[in-house]
């Protein structure tokens, strides 16, 4: 394992970029003390004021005005790419060419062609290439995966997953990068990628075919922003409107390699649900359910027929669950957890991979894993374009 200090940078200081910056700051404070010293080197954003704010807030040395400045800095070792999806490929290529380790946000790229090129890049890279599927780091989600693998749910019967959000309900919401791009890059790429990855993570295998897909767009024009847009936030807008190019909502069914079948729905125009990733995994001997709106708990039932205690019970994550021990300053069940911890554990896992620590957290998803999510999404789009026909997902 290397004991040289690791210098880290974040490209993008918007909604998720700040989460990466906060996570690098916290990564050495959780789990074992095995990481080398981490130097918080730079936050870069084309909007320099945002970079400066994040750098000051999270204790990074420099605020830089472009991703090129990060690629050109020979002192920086590891970098998060946290900008709009269409920029992921050129930035990843430049960073890997400069010998840097890369943690790229999901979805892997703005197009399938770019995602495939990034997997070629990963195959020849001598550095770590990873993708940010943060829900894998939730202790409840990781516990459900373990329970399924241990057979505690029995042979799996059904996966039912949804990611319903309301960030696009307001028709005065600005036409940000999220609303531009080919079909599949809307709700499917933005939030569908998470629920597809989570499904494969807990059910233990890839989706090999989809069918019955339908896409829809509830708000097909949006006002042009007059200035910077951060995340899903409101911003001053013009009277001029532009076309929403991709889907607000999508549904489909899926078949996994194991034979398991599942149903999915995703929407960014689902009123009243700010961040509603939720799923049920049901087998012949048990069932588990998770809802990100209650991220420190899950439902579980494996009581046998005839038992008076049959019925889903609320399980509060605690020391018996993944990530709990060493993952909190106050290690006592019932104190809650959330998105900030997911990003911290992910940053720690990435730095474990980079430094080669002796007791690493489970590795991050690879570019190849994230290409598979995009292949599933492309198959969903093809199914929707052919009246819901079954479409095989190519293996990666
Ligand atoms: N894992 C998660 O839970 C999660 C959550 C939200 C977003 N994301 C992902 O993170 C990425 C960013 O999303 P966001 O919501 O933070 O977006 P955002 O729009 O809030 O922020 C993107 C930032 O990139 C900056 N930027 C644009 N062009 C740039 C350039 N050429 N050089 C440097 N900076 C540039 C913008 O100024 C902006 O501040 C996306 O890939 C998104 O899918 C992941």
Order of helical and strand elements: EHEHEHEHEHEHEHEEEEEEEEEHHE
* Overall helicity: 25-40%
Task: Say how many strands there are.
Answer: 17
Calculate the mean pLDDT score and round it.
96
Shape: globular
- Bound molecule kinds, no repeats: nicotinamide-adenine-dinucleotide
What is the CA-based Rg, rounded? 21 Å
- Residue stretches low in confidence (pLDDT < 50, at least 5 long) are none
Going across the biggest sheet, name each strand in turn.
16-15-14-13-7-12-11-8-17
Descriptive notes:
- By secondary structure, this protein is of the alpha/beta class.
- The chain folds into 2 domains: 6-135, Rossmann fold, CATH 3.40.50.720; 139-331 and 373-383, Dihydrodipicolinate Reductase, domain 2 (2-Layer Sandwich).
- 29% of the residues lie in helices and 25% in strands.
- The protein contains 9 helices and 17 strands.
- Strands 16-15-14-13-7-12-11-8-17 form a 9-stranded mixed β-sheet. It has a 6-stranded parallel β-sheet with strand order 3-2-1-4-5-6, with helices on both faces.
- Helix 1 packs across helix 8 (339-355).
- The model has no long low-confidence stretch (mean pLDDT 96).
- Nicotinamide-adenine-dinucleotide (NAD) binds at residues 11-17, 44-47, 50, 66-67, 82-85, 87, 105-106, 132, 134, 190, 229-231.
């Amino acid at each position: 394992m290397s004991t040289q200090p690791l210098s880290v940078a974040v490209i993008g200081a918007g909604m998720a970029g700040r989460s990466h910056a906060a996570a690098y700051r916290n990564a050495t404070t959780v789990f074992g003390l095995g990481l080398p010293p981490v130097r918080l080197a730079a936050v870069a954003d084309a909007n320099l004021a945002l970079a400066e704010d994040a750098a000051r807030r999270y204790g990074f040395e420099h605020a830089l005005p472009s991703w090129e400045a990060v690629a050109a800095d020979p002192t920086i070792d590891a970098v998060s790419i946290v900008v709009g999806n269409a920029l992921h490929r050129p930035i990843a290529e430049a960073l890997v060419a400069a010998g840097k380790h890369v943690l790229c946000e999901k979805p892997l790229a703005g197009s399938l062609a770019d995602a495939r090129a990034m997997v070629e890049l990963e195959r020849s890279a001598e550095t770590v290439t990873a993708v940010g599927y943060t829900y894998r780091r939730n202790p409840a989600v990781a516990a459900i995966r373990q329970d399924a693998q241990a057979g505690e749910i029995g042979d799996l019967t059904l996966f039912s997953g949804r990611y319903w959000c309301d960030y696009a309900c307001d028709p005065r919401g600005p036409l940000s990068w999220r609303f531009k791009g080919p079909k599949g890059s809307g709700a499917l790429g933005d939030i569908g990628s998470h629920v597809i990855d989570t499904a494969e993570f807990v059910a233990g295998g890839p989706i090999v075919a989809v069918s019955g897909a339908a896409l829809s767009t509830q708000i097909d024009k949006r006002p042009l922003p007059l200035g910077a847009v951060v995340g899903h936030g409101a911003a001053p807008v013009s009277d001029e409107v532009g076309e929403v190019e991709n889907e607000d909502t999508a549904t489909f069914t899926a078949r996994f390699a194991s034979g398991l079948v599942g149903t999915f729905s995703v929407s960014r125009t689902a009123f009243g649900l700010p961040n509603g990733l939720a799923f049920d995994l049901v087998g012949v001997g048990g069932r588990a359910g998770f809802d990100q709106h209650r991220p420190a708990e899950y439902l579980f039932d494996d009581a046998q027929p005839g038992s008076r205690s049959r019925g889903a019970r609320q399980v509060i994550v605690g020391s018996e669950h993944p990530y709990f021990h060493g993952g909190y300053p106050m290690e006592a069940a019932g104190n809650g957890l959330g998105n900030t911890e997911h990003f911290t554990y992910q940053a720690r896992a990435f730095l474990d991979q980079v430094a080669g620590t002796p007791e690493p957290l489970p590795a991050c998803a690879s570019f190849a894993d994230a290409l598979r999510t995009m292949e599933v999404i492309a198959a969903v789009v093809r199914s929707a374009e052919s009246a819901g026909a079954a479409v095989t997902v190519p293996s990666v």
